[in-house]
Amino acid sequence: MASNVARREPYSIEAEQSVLGCILISNVVASELCSRLKKEDFYSGVHKSIFESMQNLINKNQPVDYVTLVSELEKDNKLDAIGGMNYITTLTNAVPTAANYEHYAEIVLQNSKLRDLLNLGNTVVAKSYDNEDPKDIVEYIEKSLTDIATNKKSGLIQIGESADKVISKFEDIAKNPNAITGLKTGYHALDKALNGGLQKGALVLLAARPGVGKTSLAMNIVTNAALDSNAICAVFSLEMPTDQLAQRAICSVACVDMKKALNADMTAEDWTALWAAKKKIKESAIHVDDSSLITTSQIVNECRKLKREKGLDLVMIDYVQLMSSGSNSRNQDNRQLQVSEFTRNLKIAAKELDVPIVLLSQLSRAVEQRTDHRPMLSDLRESGAIEQDADVVMFIYNPDIYTGPDAIKPGIVELIVAKNRSGELANIKLKFMKEFTTFVNLTADADAGSLEKSMPQFRKRPTKEDLEGQEIPDKIVPIDETNLTDDIFD
Length: 490
Known about the structure:
- The protein is an alpha/beta fold.
- The chain folds into two domains: 13-132, DNAb Helicase, Chain A, CATH 1.10.860; 182-467, Rossmann fold (3-Layer(aba) Sandwich), CATH 3.40.50.
- The protein contains 17 helices and nine strands.
- It has helices spanning 13-25, 27-36, 45-59, 66-75, 84-92, 101-129, 134-149, 163-175, 188-193, 214-229, 242-254, 258-262, 268-283, 296-309, 335-353, 385-389, 451-454; strands at residues 203-208, 233-237, 286-289, 314-318, 357-362, 392-397, 412-420, 426-433, 438-441.
- A nine-stranded mixed sheet has the order 3-2-4-5-1-6-7-8-9, sandwiched between helices.
- α11 (242-254) crosses α13 and α14 (296-309) packs parallel to α15.
- The longest helix is centred in the N-terminal third of the chain and has 29 residues, at 101-129.
């Protein structure tokens, strides 16, 4: 039986008062709560105004207490509207201690999200009655749910709200100049060029001619991030099925020749390394979608869902020229405009999702027609907009496929950072171990002290712990207890 009792939006005036009271009696708590909450999280208009004034004080590096808050409210002509000094006194008496501030803040946040969900539901109902395109409605729902889950509010904000984060970042760098501030790629020279690794919100373009190893390098970066930094990664492989990617990843991590694995020509030590690598890959947070002709909207919606449910640290897309524009695209007959639309949408997505997106791209044949075969920005295939939208553009140059003046030491490739919006340009030499589909460092990391120590942990010989918990079938894997002696695991 339906209830006739009128429903009200979720809120707790007491919890909101308690949060504001905690800010007033503890400046340590004030900094945390003013960065964690937004004025839109408060239901009461009075509390919105008070919290905004508190944030202004924090942004001006001033303490938040009874005197400073009253002064700030008076300056903005808001003191009478919020109930005068008597109401500020009420807030200071709302809680005896700030010890339970996290509990109060959680109540405010939960109610804020519930109200956002109610508003979302009402908007979706209105859009449906207006006969809007169902795809547009679904995309709106996905984006809104991600914003709600991450407590991201839209609209203009005063730039001072980011000042604390910026100064804190600079302080951390000053304390440890060699610290990685972004997501580590596993290639320390590249991390240095990118100002500390792959940065959140950046669109990173990795381009090369076919067969040079761009998929291998991109997957190396993904596995490095996942296994070294426990990063949650989303891989969209438009060219290669998931099984092939897994095959490459396992052989790369194990440093086992993939041809030998496919031709049943492996030693017992190779099998040991493969099983150790399999365990690491299975335990990693690498998620793969190998759908062909996928659109940017589908990619972004999948990423929003993953970020909402499990988190998200890195996205890799292989590769832009294989992406679909969708049947309703206005640029259906113009491939250059389509690619421009893809890169623009992915740059927006990187900013919205707050993660780096590594986008692979083919290079034009112009590279082959020059005497110097090193790629240039003008070689980007089908669209100059790729260069414009990308924050970082990198090329892989492998002179092994050429003869004459380009030839250098076999296996040595150049990773050319040709555009870097927030860092330096660089020409980084790596060794490409093609049999393992693996790129490795050629120079030692200054922090690690040696090339061996700079190598990712999973490249080292497997330990007994690497195989722990796995049931290794004797009939399939030629390993027995005599193979698992300590000398193998040194």
